[in-house]
Amino acid sequence: GTKCPSGCRMQGLIDEKDQEFSHRIDKIKKLFSDNQNNYKKSNQIIVETVNVLKPNLDSAQQLDETYGRLSGELRRRIVTLKQRVVTQVNRIKALQSSIQEQVVEMKRLEVDIDIKIRACKGTCARSFDYKVDKESYDNIQKQLAQANSINMHPELQETTLSTLKMRPLKDSNVPDHFKHKPLPEMQALNIINNIKQMEVVLERPETDAKPSRGDSSYHT
Questions:
Q1: What's the whole-model pTM score?
Q2: What 3-state class would DSSP assign to 131?
């Protein structure tokens, strides 16, 4: 290689290393430029993807809110309907009991009339051919017994409906490295932070000891 004035080869080694470092720097510059271009392309793809997803995310959020509102309204109506059913069931049972008492009283009165007519020695005995229709009363009693044996769903008075609750999802379990703010050129990702993270939970009342297979929770 090139020799310095003293005759050593130091200058040649310096030139050789300088050239080697220059190649390395050029290679690093090229890699940096390539990565920078890839980064810009990736950022552009992310922005375009976010712009496509945003309407769907907004729509999904609105659907979640509507679902929560409608499920609450549906539960309220079901509870009201259940209360009406229970009221009607109790009223039917009261009517069945009243009818049965009236039938017994009617049969007792007819038997009393029959006894009095039979005991009469005057014109009543000759004027009336009175006979108690016991078979008809027996049939009525059987029909009433069958009606009383029908299950009127008494469990409606004991069971309670689960409650669907939607509440903000806590982020305490989210790793810290997912919480950093995006770079300025990645501000498009901020829309994700504007989407409410909701947790949907189906809760059963504490008084209901039996767990339901429907009890569940999911995130949206």
A1: 0.52
A2: coil
